[in-house]
Amino acid sequence: MLCDYCQKNEATNVLKQTINGKTKMLHICDSCANSMLFSNLFSDFSINHIFTHGLQPMHAKKVCEKCGMTLDDIMSSGKVGCDRCYDTFAAELSRSIEQIHGKSSHTGKAPKSASGKLKQKNKLEELKTQLSRLIEAQDFEQAAVIRDQIKALEQEINHTAGKEEPDHE
């Protein structure tokens, strides 16, 4: 049987995923298995992603229309070629930035007057991301704890916002 990824080499590995009694299998060769499992931080490899979205053939590579860069070029140089690369490779770059920095949004300094609200909103986003990951990992007990923290923080944000807005009665 040929590798489901490269369609060239003999498949010697089987990836299995069973969810709710349904099993999906992927057959891959040693070369593809090694490149998937030991790739660098710019990799978009995720076993869950493969099982939910399927394998994208190796020969179907994205190319930036403006400068001609590929994701491999960006991975090897560590730099994008132009402004259009950010749009072309948005999903891949976002995952890479998230892997490197822990999140894909900037959380730098803010004006002192807005820092309290901003910290609360950032914390809320972090908790929502954490909740999604816990649900995906089926850690429902910890997810319930995070859900409760989200509700409490949302109430706190709404309560604070109500105090700051003047009454129009």
TrEMBL record:
Residues 100-119 are annotated as: Disordered. One of its GO terms (biological process) is stress response to copper ion. GO terms for molecular function: cadmium ion binding; cobalt ion binding; copper ion binding; zinc ion binding. Residues 121-156 form the UVR domain. SUPFAM superfamilies: C-terminal UvrC-binding domain of UvrB. This is UvrB/UvrC motif-containing protein. It comes from Massiliimalia timonensis.
